Amino acid sequence: MSVRRLILPAVVLLACIVPAAAQDWDNLSQLQTDEIIGSVTTDFYHEMGHALIDILQIPIMGAEEDAADSLSIYLITTFWEDADAQEIVSASLATWDSMYAPNAGEEPDYWDVHAPDGKRIATMSCLFYGASPETRAEFAEARGIPDKRAQSCAEEYLDLDASWAAYLDPLREGGGGSSIVFEDPEAESPITEAIRAEVDYFNDILALPDELTVRVQSCGEANAYYHGDDRSISICTELAQQVLDRMSE
Ligand SMILES: [Zn+2]
pTM score, two decimals? Predict the structure, then answer.
């Protein structure tokens, strides 16, 4: 089952909030804010992947980090209308491009639990393109997907769709609930508003068998985490600065 549905474009989200750190956000352009929200949304979906794997006890045959990356592409392409999905993924991948080790003159860390950034970027690009090749040819060109790989992307996405749909479709058929709790943030911002909207959307369409807490907080670094011990996701507000740094390069 693949139901495309627009949650809320970032533009609309921005119109209905009063950020506590109004000064900072007011100084950003619409493009900067949209890029931040696109990037953070993708990170949230990645962490939702870890949460779903844990809570639903989904068997992963391969690296869990790869599965979480794949889920983020599956969710974006399933939940969002095509034009919005393309903006979100493009923003996220552009941020990753800036972290790509060879660009900083560094060797990739092959011992990290995550695949090297370049490989993650390529895999996610291919899956996203493969989800809708008829509308994403320009995306494929912009990402530089070689023809040889592009030919298999649609099939790769079909495998991904079948894998996640097997777990998420039965959940969705069970209807919504209130299993995901958005913790009151210390300060409101476009990030808290976007993540709260994500939590609301998930609660509208499905109910998890266990409670999951989602919080937006300062972590001291630009990152996002899933904590298995208390079943919670942390989205770090520092991610915003990472996107701004990338855009100013
Ligand atoms: Zn991860």
Answer: 0.86
